[in-house]
Amino acid sequence: MLLRKRGGLDCKVGIIHKHEQVEQEKERIRKEVYQLLKTKTFSHSYTDSVNAQHIISDELQELIQETKNLYEAEEIDGKIVPITLIGGAVGAAIGGTIGGIVWGIQMICTGYMFYLLAVGLSLLCNACVKFFTKQFYKNWGLLVFTVIASFYALGLGEFL
User: Fold this and answer.
1) Residues 81-131: pLDDT tens digits?
2) What residues make up the domain containing 146?
3) I want to staple 33 with a disulfide (CB 3.0 to 4.6 A). Which of 51, 58, 65, 67 is the partner?
4) DSSP conformation letters of 37-61
5) Contact between 91 and 135 (Cβ < 8 Å)
6) Same structural domain for residues 138 and 90?
7) Domain boundary at 78, 99, 133, which?
8) How far apart are the C-alpha atoms of 49 and 98, rounded to whole Å?
9) pTM for the whole thing?
């Protein structure tokens, strides 16, 4: 009864359909802007030439700026800078040492190697490296430091 008073089911379906069209258009614009930024062909006149039927210009500007900020953050995060090397080494040393102590204690207490714990050691080392570098993804330096720290933890645990 309440649904009939507010325009019926067709009205609700129409609103949902329009919302889906807006979201699809936003996603299309995000992809276009990201590709243009990636190929270094983005220009500020893009906002004038874009065909956005369901999005108002203020919202379009905000969407473009958000995409540009995301792209710039990914560019910065992907670079290997001195903090990547210094923070990665410190994080790998701390994470590997903690992981090695945990690995050694579990081997002393149980007398067995639980290889599932090695996955946890890798995650611990990865978290330490990411914490000290303040970089989170798309950076090969982080992967290298994580692998080194994991092997260091396993080796340290064997010798405890």
Assistant:
1) 888 889 999 999 999 999 999 999 998 898 888 888 889 999 999 999 999
2) 82-159
3) 67
4) HHTT---TTHHHH---SSS-HHHHH
5) no
6) yes
7) 78
8) 55
9) 0.64
